[in-house]
Design a protein that fits this description.
alpha/beta, Helicase, Ruva Protein, domain 3, Zinc Finger, Delta Prime, domain 3, 54% helix, elongated, disordered C terminus, binds zinc ion
Length: 390
Amino acid sequence: MSDHYVVLSRKYRPKNLDDLIGQEVMTQFIRTCLEENKVPHAFLFHGIRGIGKTTTARILARCLGCVGNGDSLRPTSSPCGTCRSCIAIDNDNHMDVMEFDAASRTGVDDIREIVESTQYVPVLGKSKIFIIDEVHMLSKSAFNALLKTLEEPPPHVMFIFATTELSKVPETVLSRCMTFQLNPIPTSKLAEHVLAIAKEEGLEMEAEAAEIVATESGGSVRDALSMLDQIIMLSHKGGNITSDTVIKTIGGARQCDIDAILDFVLAGSPSEATQLADCVIVSGCAPFTLFSNLQSTLYKRITEHVKKKDKNLSNLLYLWQILLKQTENMKNAERPEHVLIAAIVILAHTASFPKIEDLMIKDRTTESGSDNLMQKILARFPGSDVSEIG
Ligand SMILES: [Zn+2]
């Protein structure tokens, strides 16, 4: 191991369109633009943090600047990686690729400086590229100073904007850009990516451990790799990375425990469900993490039922409603573990109520009236009063 540990998100930063994961539609569009040499002069990438917005901007700059493909005027969708332009971008010192963080340079003077430098022709590559990260942070006057150049930029100039808050970017700017939303990376794909990087680092990692990392990072590649950095540091580099290692490091929960809690809930067994939830919390899982894991597992089960066209869904949907209602309480509670345990008890009690589908079938078979059925349905819901109906 060298003295300077390079963080994984930097070490494995994608350099080509093919390396980007989970953004197929966008990469296909960019590839076509490059291959047909019809590249818009302004792009805007938006989406949550750590999913590859500035990485895509740099890849685009690499594709536009590469001079190793024989035709020095056309861009390429597969940059060579060895020409002076590619190497300069990889080393963050390309003279024609300028990266600004609008969070720290928000003023009109910063933008005037950019506008002025668009007049000069590129030194090394074919285009002068201005990457402005967190562009929504620019002041109103800064946006105004940018507009004219954005409308009619010199032919060698390209702007690439990135933002986590699209709604804060003025319409006048949006209308002048080719806009793409980058999606959070699906959990299964992100877990595969984490496993591949662990392998590349010479580490054994359990599939379930990678799954926990992917779930906890909410679709952000950077967050997932930062977690992996932390896990590697704490597991003293080497050894097998198990789900227990991950849980200890990041305070997550094992999927088998989440499934078991949900099974107890659905079986109407509050005592077993809360006991297991207690154990998971004591072993280091934050209550809110356990809560959101329960939510995503319940969601997974609902979608599985829908896929199978199983109409026996009402109880799951009702549990979902209860969990949703507790989200705010969890966030605001002084003791979130109390809200979580109470929610589990409510869920387990509710799950033991008869299902609407069963009541309907039974009612049809006994041919009792529809009023009778309505009373039975309403009786399932605490606080409902039949006399209020009609
Ligand atoms: Zn090149």
